[in-house]
């Protein structure tokens, strides 16, 4: 799956008073047809995309599907397969933030309603980058609740991951062969000195928390004490262990230049740049979860020479091929996102209107050098790589191949797939 994305981040800042809407900042609401033209110009068939939840989910049982109806109908007409991103770093004002204990149930209702309305959609990322969302909202104090303590972080994390799992359950009730592609940040913490080893080890365990809970994997004793010491109950922890949906999942991971960190003895961290690289860090995650892999996000600024992003694309693609060559089932690659982004230089903490030249196209919808390079990469490799859908318990079906969704047929396949997964 060669993919890109149209980012639908919508966190709040200024104590919830200001909404940062990436689709609005990049003019997607007005120029969405041009954006879909850009996708087809490059030859991309898979798109990470979703409606802005705060504009769509108006209250319990109340939805405004007007924008989604026209955009998703057009994606279907163009044979562009969406990987539907339902919640990207924020919630509607009426829900508040991720400290709200009602969020999991409310999000599950929203996910179910979406799947009910668009039964032809098979691929989902229910909640994007769960770990980063919890860290930025409740540990760093940057977004949404803007809190900075461990208890708030654990509260946000358990609510976000439980919402993700409950959302998957509701989607599966409507689409039994749905596939969930987690898009989670890949992190690694390098100890600067022997005195920093202990702190680095703790951080390297914490990076797995969202996926451990999501996949129903037992955490180690340190993390168990950390979770229960900061507000998670044993019953809440056991709930995650008893709700495993791995047979319907692809481990999607994101890797950027800032994903590796250097840890110092006093506990502070700085960016380490690309040290291990995508292949080695993904191998660590794969050894832990044993799921098919998809590279779901990467990018780099186009700098003064005009080839910086092109070189990064080539390097990330070489890492993806390396994963496949060593036997790790790898099913997709994504340059994120389609068009330049706004204010990611300050992690969306400020609305400055700064254009970050990260896209395959600029904001005037002119193709960038990396867009041309990605177009050529797709053309070169699309028919060379052997299909690896055999590594999936539940198969991916292209839009043109699935016809009208047959609920009874899917139920039979799901039962067979779950038996295979159990075996």
TrEMBL record:
<dbReference type="InterPro" id="IPR051923">
    <property type="entry name" value="Glycosyl_Hydrolase_39"/>
</dbReference>
<keyword id="KW-0378">Hydrolase</keyword>
<dbReference type="GO" id="GO:0005975">
    <property type="term" value="P:carbohydrate metabolic process"/>
</dbReference>
<dbReference type="Pfam" id="PF00232">
    <property type="entry name" value="Glyco_hydro_1"/>
</dbReference>
<dbReference type="InterPro" id="IPR017853">
    <property type="entry name" value="GH"/>
</dbReference>
<protein>
    <submittedName>
        <fullName>Family 1 glycosylhydrolase</fullName>
    </submittedName>
</protein>
<dbReference type="GO" id="GO:0004553">
    <property type="term" value="F:hydrolase activity, hydrolyzing O-glycosyl compounds"/>
</dbReference>
<dbReference type="InterPro" id="IPR001360">
    <property type="entry name" value="Glyco_hydro_1"/>
</dbReference>
